[in-house]
Design brief:
single chain; alpha/beta; TIM Barrel; Immunoglobulin-like; 2 domains; eight-stranded parallel β-barrel; five-stranded antiparallel beta sheet; 13 helices; 16 strands; 26% helix
Length: 498
């Protein structure tokens, strides 16, 4: 071997450190992917869904967070309104509110999206004050509109707010010491606008917004589309250097997509390894249930885990009831259940990502702020057992069983028998998921059970008085003091003997 080659191989040239190059294969990605500590330790993130549909009339009927997809389905003549489906109801409302689809299409909502009250510094400060350690704004949703300065002509710098929202989000995150992620949903967009195609005319600027150069169903086999997707995503990575890249959509497969999906993912990680002397500092997440969970971080959107997962995963849920702001949307998960679900996810090796749907003017609606504030209140008291923690031998106990998998997230109320565990620095933490009204019995912690070490002390986080407790063959019994912390979940720290 020539001397220069040997030096390069040894990683000694110019003080560099040699590191393995991840090949664009799932096997190689699985072999090298490592979740950074900041993600596992930080535990809490906030997702921001915000874009064109945020500025549509807030009193619109249910659009399922897909206004642009559903607004191009006019009901058949003569069909009674009582028989309209969701798409037909929204389309008829849109026509009555804004005018015929030929005259007022989705693109005509863009001037209404002004972001006139948007203050990213204040928003990031607010979510940090309520426990968030990272943020993840949507960079591109299904509607093919970029919320940043991109080569794609339909973007927030050229129209709408006329601001590079990602740049400003990142500046605010950096200022307040939060990690910065981005979420792209771009791969859905040719199919998203399938029903809008008959309203488009060749040679117009709208041609590119509605993806008219790509097949609405078979685009995943088109080289032109897959290459376009890769270029859009790579520009996003290169320009904004995100700590986390969430691909909230499909991606080009190995065969028909020429492997451009796995190429983007490994290029993202290799770029990070090169810049950080071979240490991975970024998170790659997406929702593919068939991919090997050791090769990425799984986004378990609106789902839950039945047990502790071997790899860290992300529980993503929405606080608005619609993902994108709509005044009459209802979050059917109550605040106490949301907090309990979050603790449940963390006890099972999960990380929590709470979506806030900003108004078109860039402000947080009060009902969503209430969810985040309640969670922040819990963390201010119990954060010691959350941040930096890891799962214990078992996640907990209690009658409420969580469904394993995406969708179908829990909306049922917890009881004081539902208890979850975490561990940190040799201590065990037990969280009672409903404010207790009687003494607590934790059967998992019985003598002769899975906890082999002695408990030397029990303290209640946020409490000042001494806790009376006994441990027997029935379990750990904790006598409830007269005064409990003002928290939806009550946490206890169990000090263990060495």
């Amino acid at each position: 071997m020539k001397l220069v080659q040997w030096i390069l191989a040894a990683g000694l040239l110019a003080g560099t450190t040699a590191h393995a190059q991840i090949e664009p294969t799932w096997e190689s990605l699985k072999q090298h992917y490592q979740v950074p500590d900041w993600f596992q330790d930080g535990k809490i993130g906030v997702w921001f869904h915000w874009g064109i549909s945020s500025a549509a009339d807030e009193n619109r009927p249910n659009d399922g967070s897909h206004y642009g997809r559903r607004m191009y389905s006019p009901p058949p003549d003569g069909k009674p309104k009582s028989e309209y489906n969701m798409n037909e109801t929204l389309t008829q409302w849109h026509i009555e509110r804004y005018g015929p689809l030929e005259e007022f299409g989705y693109e005509d909502l863009i001037p209404l999206f002004k972001a006139e009250k948007w203050d990213p510094d204040a928003l990031v400060r607010f979510v940090k004050d309520n426990g968030a350690c990272f943020i993840m704004p949507v960079a591109t949703h299904h509607d093919n509109f970029d919320m940043y300065d991109s080569f794609h002509p339909w973007n927030s710098v050229k129209m709408g707010p006329k601001r590079d929202t990602l740049k400003e989000w990142k500046q605010a995150a950096t200022k307040h010491g939060l990690k910065f992620g981005v979420s792209t949903h771009l791969y859905w967009s040719p199919r998203f606008f399938a029903n809008a195609r008959k309203y488009q005319k060749p040679g117009t600027p709208e041609w590119s917004l509605f993806n008219m150069d790509y097949h609405p169903r078979n685009y995943s086999s088109q080289d032109s589309w897959n290459e376009h997707w890769y270029q859009r995503c790579w520009e996003l990575i290169e320009k904004y250097d995100p700590d986390m890249f969430n691909n909230d959509s499909p991606y080009p497969k190995i065969g028909p997509g020429k492997g451009l999906g796995i190429k983007l993912f490994t290029d993202y990680l290799n770029r990070d390894l090169k810049e950080n002397n071979g240490k991975q500092t970024v998170v790659l997440s997406f929702k593919d249930p068939d991919a090997d969970r050791e090769a990425f971080t799984y986004n378990l959107e609106r789902g839950s885990a039945g047990d502790i997962k071997p790899e860290p995963w992300m529980w993503a849920t929405d606080l608005s009831g619609n993902w994108f702001y709509r005044k009459n949307a209802v979050n059917r998960m109550s605040i106490p259940v949301m907090v309990g679900n979050a603790v449940d996810a963390i006890s099972k090796n999960g990380v929590v990502m709470l979506n806030i749907a900003l108004k078109g003017d860039g402000t947080i609606p009060g009902n969503q702020a209430a969810y985040l504030t309640a969670f922040g209140d819990f963390l201010k008291i119990n954060g010691e057992g959350i941040y930096g923690s890891r799962p214990w031998k078992t996640f907990g106990e209690g009658p409420l069983r969580m469904k394993d998998g995406r969708q179908g997230e829990n909306k049922k109320e917890f009881s004081q028998q539902d208890i979850r565990f975490t561990t940190k620095d040799g201590n065990l933490y037990a969280f009672v998921l409903k404010k207790p009204t009687t003494d607590i019995l934790i059967e998992t912690l019985r003598t002769g059970g899975v906890l082999e070490r002695e408990i030397t002390d029990v303290t209640m986080m946020g409490g000042s008085g001494k806790i009376t407790w006994t441990r027997t063959a029935d379990g750990l019994k904790i006598q409830i003091p007269e005064t409990l912390p003002v928290s939806l979940v009550t946490g206890f720290k169990l000090t263990l003997a060495n």
